[in-house]
Batch of 2 targets.
Target 1
Amino acid sequence: MTADNMDYVDVSSDHGSHPLGRRLTVAACVLCVVILVFALGGCWDARDIDHIGFIMGMGVDESDDGKIVVWVQMALPSSGPEGAANTPAWLGSAAGNTMMDAMSALRMKSAKTLFRGHVKVLVIGEKIARKGLTPILDYLARDSQFRYNSWVLVTSDPVGKIFEVEADQENMASSYINLMMRHATLSSVAPQSRFRDLLSTAAEPGDQPVLARVSLVKSEPEEEEGEQDEAQQGVWGQRTGNEGGKGKKGDVETKSDIEISGSAALHGDLVVGWLDPVQTAMVLMARNRLKEYSFLHMVPGTEGDTVGVKVLHSRATIELPPRHKMTRTGLRGAEVRIRVTGCVYIEEVMSEEQFVSIEADRNLSRGVSDQIEAEMESLIEIAQNRLGTDIFGIGEAVRRCISSDVWEDEIAPIWRDIFKEIKIIPEVSLKVERQGTTMTSPRPQA
Amino acid sequence: MLVAVIVFSTGFLAAARLLTPVAGTAAWISVLLGGVIGLVIAWLVGSVSSAFPEQNLVKIAEDIFGKPFGKVIGLTFALYCTVVVVLGTREFVLAISISFLERTPFYVTTAVFFILASYAAYLGIEAIARVCFIFFGVVIISIAILGVFAIPVLVPGRLLPLAGRGVIPIMRAALLTASYTGEAIVSLAFLRHLKDKRHVSRAVGTGVAIGTAIMAMTVAYGIMMLGTGGISRVTYPAVETARMVGAGEFLERGEILFLALWFSVAILKLASVFYAAITAIADLLNLDNYRRLILPFGIISMVLSSIPANVAQSFAAVEYFLKYTVWYAIALPALLLIGARVLRHEKGGTPDDSR
């Protein structure tokens, strides 16, 4: 039914012909215009931008006395030239019995309205993460201002110290973490853990999320240049017990920096353990979320020769037992295969062998596949025995194959136990597809 | 287009939340099956309209069943339209208030809705249809943009197993959806204004099909983005899916833009149902000019729409509406059609000849 198909309906009949009716119409129109003048101008319920504090980063952890502590990093836009302002951000914190309580306490410390519509990162401390994220998720999921695209990271370092870091590239830690997360997720050293991903997977027992890990690391010393190498190699923070944005190690004053690598594995709303960058990449590969992944492959039969390869495309499929065996008893001890296929790109060759022959190429493909397979086996062992959480999404694959009622009533409640008893076998088959713009390494002659 | 707008524009906000707990991952299939029932209703509506091309519903009922029973049928229709207006308004006002206008009192947003709907009803169905002609395309484009930007966030595997909780739950959810598609019976109030009355069933059916397709897509996207667990948790899945979508760093919080556009079609739906209600009441009361009813009906509807005090009460009312009104939506045109056939058989000619 379109407008062109409609008859004209007379709208003028019986109205406006009477002088009183006409005057009332004019009066109503004038009244509407007057109301609109005020309403459209924002005179009602207006909020001046100067009075709004744009929160760029939020942090949550638990204090020693069991209270929830919330940190907010608020941008303080300067009217002067860029970089003129000494304090680009305000970091505030408050404690409370719940998230709402802490946020209410925080509001009392800020002269500006706390606006959560620009939050780029949410950093969660290990202490509260191990006790459960539900109090945080509940508050933020109900909040219409909070952005679903915000990054969610977990740290074992003091949350406040993370936000105190002033990197050379970016003054505000929140913006710095936001930029770093973009690169970290592209290179698969950290998972793409946005708030929306956490929300959509946390409730699925067979599809447990992994969250990116942020850590404090020791940056170069500010005074003694000779100590630079030593300082760069050390890891500050949770591994050395750093207590501030800046600290002293021996006689050398050090500056903290931020590192994003690895991830935290969750079971439900609990963080149950940490995964290093390699393990994180394996999880992402098994779940078809790997963007690209570079690693060094030791050439067998040589003394330390290496080939740098990058996994460009990979595809993982989970091969489950036959459908009739997918019951709460049939799945226990059942064999599940994770088949990974893909191609790799040679980025660097530190070996006499240049991998130009078909045989060498085939050996490299097999070697690279074996290496990934071994790393995946190690991860499976960790997931089943140490973490006890289905980070591979095998449960989700099972859910897709069976009736919803069977999954929800029979299998999902005990999936964690079933997962630990499944025999998971990785089968990796990567092929060398690209070798760069040169076939052999340049060999300068003296 | 107007029928499509009537079918989807308010229901699609929360349809996924109401259907997914019933049908599970197959909720989108239930919507399509509900659309099939809607097509049957559209055929019935079209057949009744073709039999009485120049009459409104109340007059049709009076011609077939006599004045007293015809008035009763007309009264039920007016009540049905009132419930649709009241619940539809409340649902949209709550969606806007919870998501964006946190500090704006409900009655202010409701008043804006009713002022606009009243003004549109005052101008008549042609004005509503012409505005719909403009906004419908814009809204379709907005949903298409949302669909494209949502692709990176989609997990198609979440739609599995296709059969969800089984055949019976799918059919139960399909009946619930048919309550949305059954809202096409509102068009009985204004189909006589169509210039070309030869293909009324096709026109109404097309509207139902488009509305159903949009609802099915919304439900499927909701499941793919939030999962069945997540979608049962959120208040308005359509708004939540829009919140999840972002195109890089340059287009975030797009849900505000989308909801503003959806607001426009919701107004058009409410205006057309508002128009249907007051023209039915005018026919019941034998009033020459339906416009005299705009102010009292608008005020009464506004008050009624304020009765569900919160989302929980609003959803409870919507669930009742979905559970029972499908039967009314099927029975009304079926009864009229059967009556018209019997009348024609008795008189030996077309129902029009009998008048």
Target 2
Amino acid sequence: MTHWIIAPIILPAMLAAFILLVVRFHLTLARTFSVAGVASLLAIAAGLAWRASDGSIDIYQLGNWSAPFGIVLVADRLSTMMVLLTAVLALFVLLYAIGSGWDKRGQHFHALFQFQLMGIMGAFLTGDLFNLFVFFEVLLIASYGLMIHSGGTRRLRAGTQYVLYNLLGSTLFLFALGAIYAETGTLNMADLAGRVAQIDPGNSTGIRVAAVLLLMVFAVKAAIAPLHFWLPSSYAEAPAPVAALFGIMTKVGAYAIIRVYTMIFPPDLETTSGLFGMWLLPVALIGLLIGMTGVLGAKKLDRLVAFSVIGSMGMLMTSVALFTPAGISAALYYVIHSTLAAAALFLIADLIRSGRGEAGLDLRAALPIPGGAMIAALFFVGAIAMTGLPPLSGFVGKLLILNASFDTPLMWVTWAVILGSSLLAVVGFSRAGSVLFWKSHQLADQIADDSLPDDEQGALETRDPKGHIPVLELVSIGALLALLVAHTVFAGPVTRYMGATTAQLFAPEPYIRAVLDAPGKDMSRDAYHAEEDGAAEGTATSEGGN
Amino acid sequence: MELLFASSVGLLTAAGLYLVFRLRTFPVILGTSLLTYAVNLFLFASGRLTVGAPPILMDGVTRYTDPLPQALVLTAIVISFGMTAVVVVIALGAYLGADDDHVNDPKEEGADT
């Protein structure tokens, strides 16, 4: 047991309170603490990932209570990988928010950002379903604040829709948890894995209902096809850095599906067999198609990127829905790719918006952006990554998913949809790119030819009144894209690591034993009395060993 | 008792869902509140309904009620209260800004973008 496991949750929580209470009027100090906090979070996450990389499973018992009664945090390969990904993403998104000044356009950006991180980290690390619900709520309530950061009527309206949708999702989550508790008498994931396996398949109506309800909850979070309607408006209207950070929130849903449906309701479990396997794959494919068609049809760049997020979640879920080691492993590779690619694209879209003045992100020709060549190049790289063209990691991920789906009965449909939707995405992104970056030059030439009054000619040349070169913004976008390149270059080692992670997921016995057999304070009667006797001699004896 | 309890949970859920589908912020918020009541009762019942038994395991006590759902319900109540407060504030902001309390986007938005 190492105390570092709880650090990714405690650190942002304390920091958020500190920023809120002490330095809320000092922007520079708040920025410094926020960046320092996220940087140390990154270091801690890297340490945890390194510890878990040899396949060992660390657990942390809150209050030293042993597992089925106490709450545990578990750091295995999958959860530490997701924590590390969150920390990396958060650092660059935060740098962008500071560079672009988004953090000073409303109040409490940094405090909310830290609370959001706390919720995400907790959701990845917890080993208890009810605790997962609590951390979902923490990340959601912080995301409500971030989503409407800096206000505006359209944003508030999108925020209302987002909050209401998620409130309904939370209610559904509670119904699912209640049903699971009524059937099994526990909410600890490791304990559940054992108890669900013991349920008589002939008398399993309750647990089957609970399993599907839970899947629907996670599907809402992951924006899987019929439950994706909250995503386009909220991601498009949210401030760009927030939308970029939200990229990891859909992955929280995907993570929960992978975790729960490999450990508690594994694919070969008789009780829940045939419940989701048959429709999850078609639904994921429909999501992929809807997303990429949305890319083709979007009239604004931010909506286009939001739809590409839906598409990439569809792609991800296609791979998860196979519930084979190859499928999950490909999905995990794709998780990293799509998180980074979507974040980079949201940030690039924001750079474009700030350069285009009142044209905003409408996909129509406007005057060229200052520094347009650079931004166009970034957009080009981001679009290549997102649509999955060679040579970037989207292509590798797609190959892995195609390869993993080779043995399914729906192989032809799957391949056709994946390849067809990629074509749609390529067309959609190239249309957007050419309108934004090429048509603008035509328009500029046209206007220059027409005899405009002098003052407007002048306005043409000095489009950017501040003369502001977005160094920090370009650095953070560049870093995200560089990570995508690294994800491609090191695809071999990364895939091997994902293979090991998947192997750990499909052999949950060590996880279950690590959680349930760890020594700690117990609630059974014998232990209770032993504790009472021991209390006279001093409480220090109950301190657990590391 | 079980029948009464189950049907009240069902009734609350149905009324809540009906209000949510009205798609105006005030009925929707009322609807989510009703849904929250329903789910709290449901959670409460997930430890089986027992009347007049202590929620604690002690020497000499053979009949007790499950304490865990009570803790879960307490957490759920606190969270849903906070969430309702947040959604009221955001919905109020949206209503005052747009002078319109429909949850869905207005129609003309699709036309002018």
